[in-house]
Amino acid sequence: MLTYYAFKIAQYTVAYLPNRVGYFFSRLVANMIYMLSPATKANVSDNMRHVFGPDADEATIKKATRGVIRSVTRNYFGMIKLPRTKHGDIENRAVLHGFHNLEEALVRGKGVILATAHLGSFDAAVQILAAKSVKTTILVEPLDPPALLNHVIWLRESMGLSCLPAQLGSLRGMIRRLHRGETILITCDRDFTNDGVKIDFFGEETSIPEGAVRIAMKTGAAVVPAFNLLRDDGKYDIFWEPAIDLLPESNGAVKKNVEQVTRVLEKYIRMAPDQWVVTSPIWANGDNPKQSVE
Taking the model in full, what pTM does it have? Predict the structure, then answer.
């Protein structure tokens, strides 16, 4: 419950800070986490070693690790600010790349699955879909206690998007939305249920979630990779890739389709490793990933 109460307190204190002050405060918090939470630091460092490869020096890993933690706390501040943010604020900060790929996929009429990663200013940038009147549902990882999950959902829905907790019965809800021609956003870089498929990810095999691919193959929905990266000037570069050409149902098709998604994930994570805001271990030592709200 401590995390929940921290969010509630921040909602009535930190959320009122100007962005410049809030980002300064979030940076201080990140520095404290870096120094006082060795588990978080170790998890992020391990992820960064995989992204940068075996030839990366320790200085590079340390800088990227500190950057990830700073991106996490900055994103928390952005999420807390959402109820006080206007669509125009998001549009003014968003630089769109390939939005026509999403529009073309929507025209097919079978719905769209946006396959993404915990990358960039996730909670703020995704609100561009609400600003563009694209009816979108975010699949949300389960959180304990339920009060925390409900609060995170309230924050993410405050600008017009919908959320659906990833739990028993959520599949039926996603399929209904896709049949209505709507959009579902699913993060595909962290298998919190540990029941995905084994894929080579940054040179080492790990479990990658297959849900987005399986749902698309079942419904005919398009899979459009979508990502955002935060610029130094505070704007967001938001990218929509062309829809992935999924292989039809056959032996091994699911894994091959997940591999296609994974290759795009790698491409964008490599562009800004310090914005890959995953604080749980992704590879072999992540059999019991810690809860997070990225």
Answer: 0.93
Distances (CA, A) of 203 to 47, 51, 63, 277, 278: 12, 9, 21, 20, 18
Does some domain include residue 269?
Answer: yes
Residue 152 has pLDDT above 60, yes or no: yes
Which two structure tokens, joined as six digits, stand for 48? Answer: 């960064």
Under the banding of pLDDT at 50, 70 and 90, the label for residue 285 is: low
pLDDT at 127: 97
The number of folded domains in the chain is: 1
- 114 contact partners, CB below 8 Å, separation of at least 6: 102, 136, 183, 184, 185, 186, 224, 225, 226, 240
Output b/e per residue, 144-178; b: 16+ Cβ within 10 A: eeeebbebbbebbbbbebbbbbbeeebeeebbebb
CATH number of domain containing 25: 3.40.1130
Domain span at residue 255?
Answer: 2-275
**Torsions phi, psi for 136 (to 5 deg):** -130, 140
φ and ψ at 149, to 5 degrees?
-60, -45
Q: How far apart are CA 184 and CA 174, in angstroms?
A: 7
Q: For residue 212, which of 198, 201, 223 has the smallest C-alpha distance?
A: 223
69 in a structural domain: yes
Question: Under a CB-based contact definition with an 8 Å cutoff, are residues 119 and 278 in contact?
Answer: no
Give how far the C-alpha of residue 100 lies from the chain's centroid of Cα atoms, to the nearest Å. Answer: 21
- The Cα 181–Cα 173 span in angstroms is 13
Q: Give dist(CA 48, CA 109) in Å, integer.
A: 39
Calpha distance 275→120 (Å, rounded): 5
Whether residue 292 is contained in a domain is answered as no
**Phi, psi angle pair for 192, to nearest 5°:** -70, -15
Note whether residue 288 is domain-resident: no
**Measured distance CA(87)–CA(243) in Å, rounded:** 26
Place of tokens 């006082």: 36
